[in-house]
TrEMBL record:
Pathway in which the depicted protein is active: Amino-acid biosynthesis; L-histidine biosynthesis; L-histidine from 5-phospho-alpha-D-ribose 1-diphosphate: step 9/9
Active site: 322-323
Any Pfam family hit: Histidinol_dh
GO biological process, alphabetically ordered: L-histidine biosynthetic process
Keyword match Nucleus: no
Example of a GO MF term: zinc ion binding
Organism: Xanthomarina gelatinilytica
Protein name: Histidinol dehydrogenase
Amino acid sequence: MKTIINPNRKIWASILKRPTQNMENIELTVNQIFDDVKRHGDAAIKKYTELFDGASQQCNMVTEEEMELASNLVLEELKRAIKLAKSNIEKFHQAQKTDKLEVETTPGVVCWQEKRPIEKIGLYIPGGTAPLFSTVLMLAIPATIAGCKDIVLCTPPNKEGKVANEILYTAKLCGIDKIYKVGGIQAIAGMTFGTKTMPRIFKIFGPGNQFVTVAKQLATKYGVAIDMPAGPSELLVVADQSAQAAYVASDLLSQAEHGVDSQVVLVSSSEAFIKRVQNEISKQLLDLPRKAIAEKAISNSKFIYMQQETDALDLINAYAPEHLIIATKNNDYFVDNILNAGSVFIGNYTPESAGDYASGTNHTLPTNGFSNVYSGVNLDSFTKSITFQNISKQGLKNIGPAIELMAEAEGLQAHKNAVSIRLKDIS
Ligand SMILES: NC(=O)c1ccc[n+]([C@@H]2O[C@H](COP(=O)([O-])OP(=O)(O)OC[C@H]3O[C@@H](n4cnc5c(N)ncnc54)[C@H](O)[C@@H]3O)[C@@H](O)[C@H]2O)c1
Ligand SMILES: N[C@H](CO)Cc1c[nH]c[nH+]1
Ligand SMILES: [Zn+2]
């Protein structure tokens, strides 16, 4: 683990490049699978499920009996933990509901905006290297609060063609019953085109590996919306001597264990502190069941000494991390000035894992620098705003002449006429 000392701004982009695989190869695979699923529907999905997940299945839908059985197999203690997380996630997302916004812009001209749910949505739950049942909570809860009606869930099966009990239990708890044992690119393609067994949906939500993320991006070319690119997990920690090296190491490892292409970064104004964190990482790694994955991700990670807080802030904003932990003497400076981050965790007692599971915020967040333009999943992700207006006779008298003038100046006579014909009747 090497420390980079006060890197020059010119090399920020190159040192902070994400450890993604060759995207061109992935795009090629994604295009081929999309084409195949578009032409051959379920048969193609079956073929790729066998190829990538090693599962041979006759039916790709989870049955009611499977749901029931799975729910009975989840330990009561874990069920209680899931329910606590559900309650907090519900509270935070319920509070995101906003009232109807109404403004009388000119006397007699009333404009308002109302939110309506997206009708048909698809939730992708990662399951390649770990069955992320917490993601079911993060997607199904806001979808239900927003009022989405047709919800399907896709997740990869294991080699026996089964989905983890915890995913099925959590889905049942959240009222989701249309579950497809399909993952990866083939799941995204299935929801994009629709097949005999899978419906075509309007918007796809959820995180995934690079294959899933590139597939979601391709889905947009076929008229399906997506929440955002939410790929391999990332964490940037900015910490100084006031932080606990062991805590910081545990946070960095928490995101490193997601996958070999995860990226974690430490920025600190103390070289001695960085050294302590690196030593702690080496120690803590030894006990991790996913040691090999975390070790590979750590090898791609960056430890950066930044003498000046102002430079550190600029670097963080340029990197636009998915998660940002702030543990410094001067937390307020970073909190007040951060521009680009998916979700921020403040102080020594706010591990990033809290947001992954149970504090209430959503863990489906933009990666790969996209937090400079995208928000993480929230209640609004599941709705669209419709504007309405109702203009009285007096209202049209008030703004009509301005509309007539503007329409004429744009050379759009029919637009002007639509106002003039009414004004003639009123006056
Ligand atoms: N950004 C976020 O909000 C967020 C949240 C949770 C998890 N994540 C990330 O989600 C990812 C989950 O990844 P995962 O792999 O465990 O599960 P996954 O479900 O995303 O992907 C597994 C699927 O990938 C496909 N696949 C695997 N290798 C392939 C290949 N060579 N060619 C084509 N398809 C292939 C298979 O179909 C497999 O079912 C991790 O990278 C994790 O960091 C991100
Ligand atoms: N850290 C992931 C988001 O990048 C979310 C997650 C789910 N389970 C554990 N972690
Ligand atoms: Zn995580």
